[in-house]
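Fig. S4 source data, part A: sequence.
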Amino acid sequence: MAQQQENIFNHLILNKGFIEWVRNPNEASDFFWEKWLKEKPAHTQEFYRAKAFVEKIWHEDDRLSNDELDDLLGKIIQKEDTSDAKRHSSRKIFSAKVTPALKKFTNYAAVFVIVITTVLLYDTLTIQETTTEVAEVVEWEIISNPKGKRSKVTLPDGTLVDLNHESTLKYPKQFDSKTRLVELHGEAFFDVVHKDDHPFVVKTGVLETEVYGTSFNINSFAYLDELDISLVTGKVKVRKTIDDTEATDSLFLNPGEQVQFNKISHEMVKNEFDIESAIAWKNGTLIFKEVGFTDFIDKLERWYGVNFHIKGTPPKNWKLNATYQNEKIEDILRGIRFIYGMKYNYDHQGKNISITF
């Protein structure tokens, strides 16, 4: 057990992705190494010991002592000693050249050269894999739509995603062997490629939706108090987590069922829903049912990416029931201007619209 722990420590301090994360953390690398640590809780102590070790190497005001530098080289040479005879001569050349130099340099610049050279040469020489591997940092793709824009995305496994306006989808350039994990902010419709041994998980805040092959819609716009997950085909499991780690509650959905999650109370409720209304947006269809003026204007702004400026007071009895299929915004306004007694005009760019009652 002690040997395995030491192998984890050695592998981490020689991992380029780990070193880069400690030196220059970002959202993507944070996500990867947090996930790595959650999946390997038994190695928590070695993880943080390796992190502190790398931080100390790169911190100008907290330099390594001679003993610590010797310890670092000793770990590397010890690792080399366990390799096969094929690279034995290369290791001897490496040791002969580097060992005297290590004892002469204790400043920041010297440590920089030593560590980088060691890591690169170690990666080149090592041809025998250990039983415990540390993968490189996952590369992520991020697709973000502004107001007025919708897009279609094909994921690495062939899954098709319709991404709505004001929505962001984050996914790895290559899925790992365990889970196809993506993150969504906003609204999207997923048509997931079926894989029995490779579940597809959509993370939206504290909710995770797990599927194996199905089609469903998630509406998680930040400006709404509720998050809706609506299943069209297949079967999904929706689970609620605490601190993004511990599953506390879950529901299974069949086609035609929907989970409504209250963002304030964190309550989950399962209901039936109207499939046509829930996914109309992905087909370019706008549906208004008993919609008041404020909600009408808000939806048009988000759908078409425009800004409205209202002059006067709209009628109190404003209630709109209408369906528009790939209509231009001017056609919509022209059709209702006489009903509600309003005038409208555009600026020269067509992005600002004034409505006067």
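Fig. S4 source data, part B ends here. Residues 58 and 167 are 38 Å apart (CA to CA).
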